[in-house]
Amino acid sequence: xxxxxxxxxxxxxxxxxxxxxxxxxxxxxxxxxxxxxxxxxxxxxxxxxxxxxxxxxxxxxxxxxxxxxxxxxxxxxxxxxxxxxxxxxxxxxxxxxxxxxxxxxxxxxxxxxxxxxxxxxxxxxxxxxxxxxxxxxxxxxxxxxxxxxxxxxxxxxxxxxxxxxxxxxxxxxxxxxxxxxxxxxxxxxxxxxxxxxxxxxxxxxxxxxxxxxxxxxxxxxxxxxxx
Length: 227
What we know:
Layout: H1 5-14, H2 20-32, E1 50-51, E2 57-61, H3 69-72, H4 80-91, E3 112-116, H5 129-145, E4 151-155, H6 157-169, E5 186-188, E6 193-197, H7 202-205, H8 212-226
Helix pairs in contact: 1-5, 4-8
């Protein structure tokens, strides 16, 4: 048995080729690149979660960005969504620095872990339901290994629904009907308290749907829930 089960899982995720459409897309993006990153060596593979193995707070996103995680090899690293996310986590004491630009930039998470429901960058940021379901077993295993997690922040409705599917299939008692996703919504469960948060995408941050105080409130609440 591996002495580092999270490391073993990471290796499995990073070598996955289960979804032909996603494999083709992520590799095409890595070859063609964006002009601003033409000198970068794109990762072009699935992106595993990362953070503190003893984390009590788990942040679940949708999928790596084509020119963010798919380029850098770390989720929310090197894109505008990550700029917002890690700045907020830094203000709340979960990250040692407010920015994340590369896998080796020194970012360290304390009491927090960040992952995505789908591990490959999807076209138009829209994985199919089948692709999501193909990928979710990795998150199931990740969640099992992160045994100290007590709060799960879901960034967007897609992550909220994915988490709900995982908990339901694990026979975790859940309220019926399912509470509608919304920013700041809280759903206590026997596994962890779910906290909804609008995704820090440019679509939300540029329009003011998500503001820094709103994002800070989510992580302040997460901190309160594990205190």
